[in-house]
Every structure is written in structure tokens, then in C-alpha cells.
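Appendix C: a fully annotated inverse folding record. The material below is reproduced so that readers can follow the format used throughout the book. The structure is listed first as C-alpha cells, followed by the designed sequence.
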């Protein structure tokens, strides 16, 4: 098992046993480690998905602890990063396509969060516009 997988596994075990601080530690370590690995191999989809999943694990952890604001932050980190990558001209078309596909994975949890918790009017409008844009682009992404 690779180090990032071990960190996630340990975090999941702590989460399941309600050892919140330890779970937070392992998840944050996994996020940091995966961020470094993915930066060195940006086309590695496995690392990208693991990084997004690790951020989402932290979001669930903070929500479970009654901290929805911090939870939302960890949902938005990967979403905003994929949004920026999808619009960036710095990377190849393949990377932009990967980012666009990843946006589908990052958007749904943010949307569900917004339906469960109140968010500001501007954020709600931005989500609505993004959903419309995503639906319009559905036919062009294969």
C-alpha cells in the first residue's frame, strides 16, 4: 500500500471510531502529500481523484463535527482548483478536459451542501449559473 493510501486508510479508521482529531490529522496529511505528488505528475488521474476524495473526507469530517463553514471550504478547494484548471491556458487540452470532468465530481457535493445549509445569495447564484453551464456543456464532453 502506498503512503497516501495508508494515510487515507488510517484516517477512515479513525473516522469510523469517532477519533476526530486523529482522522483530521491523517486526512490533512493525505491532502498535502497527494497535492505534492499530483503537482509532479499532473496528468495522473488516480492522484487527482485521491486528492479530491481526501478534501471531501475532510469536508465530511468537519460537517460531522458541526462545522459547516469549514466543511464548505474543503468542498470548494478542489472545485475552485478544477474550475481554474479548466479555464487555464497553461495546460494541454487533455488536462483541461480532465479538469472539466473532475468538476462534475466536485460540483455535486457543493450543490448538495447548498441545499442542506444556507449559503450567501451570491454563492447560490454562482452555483445556479455553474449548473446551467455544466448542463449546457454536457453534450460536448465525452
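Designed amino acids, in order:
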Amino acid at each position: 500500500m502506498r503512503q497516501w493510501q495508508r494515510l487515507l486508510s488510517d484516517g477512515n479508521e479513525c473516522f469510523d471510531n469517532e477519533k476526530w482529531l486523529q482522522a483530521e490529522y491523517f486526512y490533512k496529511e493525505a491532502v498535502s502529500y497527494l497535492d505534492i505528488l499530483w503537482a509532479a505528475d499532473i496528468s495522473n488521474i488516480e492522484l487527482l481523484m485521491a486528492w479530491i476524495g481526501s478534501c471531501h473526507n475532510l469536508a465530511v469530517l468537519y460537517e460531522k463535527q458541526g462545522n459547516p463553514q469549514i466543511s464548505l471550504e474543503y468542498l470548494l478547494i478542489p472545485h475552485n482548483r478544477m474550475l481554474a484548471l479548466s479555464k487555464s491556458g497553461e495546460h494541454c487540452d487533455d488536462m483541461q478536459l480532465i479538469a472539466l470532468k473532475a468538476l462534475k465530481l466536485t460540483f455535486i457535493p457543493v450543490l448538495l451542501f447548498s441545499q442542506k445549509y444556507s449559503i450567501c445569495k451570491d454563492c447560490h447564484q454562482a452555483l445556479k449559473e455553474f449548473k446551467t453551464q455544466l448542463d449546457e456543456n454536457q453534450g460536448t464532453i465525452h
